Amino acid sequence: MHEIMTIFKREFASFFSTPVAYIFITIFLVMSGVFTFLIGDFYARGQADLLSFFNFHPWLYLFLVPAISMRIWSEERKSGTIELLMTLPITTFHIMLGKFLAAWLVLGICLVLTFPLWLTVNYLGNPDNGIIVAAYLGSWLMAGAFLAVGICMSAFTKNQVIAFMLAIVLCFLFVLAGSPVIIDVVQGWAPNIVIDTVASLSFMTHFQDMSKGVIALNDVLFYVISILVWLYAGYLVIEQKKAN
Amino acid sequence: MIKVDNLSREFGHQKAVDNLSFEINPGDIVGFLGPNGAGKSTTMKMITGFLPATAGKIQVAGHDIENAPLEAKKRIGYLPEGAPAYPDMTVYQFLHFIAAARKIPKSSREEAIKRVVSQVDLTAVLNKTIDNLSKGFKRRVGIAQALIHDPDILILDEPTDGLDPNQKHQVRELIASLAENKIVIVSTHILEEVTAVCNRVIIIANGQKKFDDTPQALLRRSRYFNAITIGLSYIADISGLLELEGVADMQHDRSNNLITVFPRDQQDISAVLHEYVQKNKLPIEYMYPEQGRLDDVFREITTSTDNKEVA
Fold it and tell me: What pLDDT, on the 0 to 100 scale, is given for residue B179?
């Protein structure tokens, strides 16, 4: 635990010692505002909820989370600090967790900073705040899954741009997994069980209920397992090719 | 103690380290020499547990680096090649992070930082970000980081690379002052450094061990060892020198009028030479003993296999 905390603190501080975190948070807030009010028609809907805000989160994360995850391992590789890090008496898995938690907290801070939206909806109407809190937690969990994919991709390369692109492509597939775009490709030849499996991997479908405030165990488990699987994959990548 | 047994490492088809074995005991300051790409850094990376070995075993203070990596890593202080550090941190923040990661208890962390900061003279830049430091300071931060937990084993990959002569001297003094009852492994391609700091030299080339002995033994390999160079103020008859007992060969540098006399079997020929010079009243300007030329020995040792392969 102490090891994870040590890594966590350094990583978290490093987001804020450069403009990365500030720019990221600003863009996140602006984008979520644009999505909610302009594209999501927050006012026109006339509903006292934040559905138009949460509905766009998968698309927001699709581009923004890879932007924050791309540097996590790539930079260590590029600057050679990976050698320093991996020769400290800390296991790779602890390092992985520390790094993940730090970036995840940054994403959590982004979500918390969208509170003016919550104030707005409370000012305008009487929303069910329980639902909103649940949706926030669900969104954060989903962000974690995006992040774990991004960290795994970052582990592959010392080039941040490549890590960014790989993460976007992979996240895109996971977002679309349940949509006709992907299903149609599989439908022609694969048995039903494959189609169902592919569809059930969608980050989107598992978030649909959550965005309405329904926290179902299977959705939570899906994201938790996704996070663990991708972090473990990243761990294996790092262990396999520490030096380039 | 470090024990390396039949260590090998392959990158694709290329053998970076080829069946390397050696043992290093407390008190040893080992100079790790070899041409670029000889496998020095790869070997160090394996000892520190960064790279896994393709074959062979490494034991650090009795702990197998593969089976008990954390126990082994705890005992090692390591300066990787190029002294990498997190550029966005200040020197203090960085050292603090390493101290925490090295599990130095909170109460003695400040003390440990203070100790290494004075050891490598970092006080002036303690609150500067590492990104803004000069190469020399960056290297010293790397060394400080390796020393912070007062390790029994110190592994430094090219610690003086990019330092000015004063800084080099400082680092060498530091290494020498640390050495008692510790193991220090220093890789370098500066040959004088080895004779200045180390009490043991391991030369590797093509991933294989070519030499493992004291720096003195290395010098003794040179044909210049115990040779004597004489400077003459004008041309004189020196043919008699070759007849002297113990003299094997002689080399005359006509442009500077310098004569180097090589002894047979590295014996001491200074007395005989002195006597001859006085008897024949040679116009001696100066006369000095040679140390042995490491460059030649190094070249001979590290390229010898290639010649054999060609032949």
Answer: 66
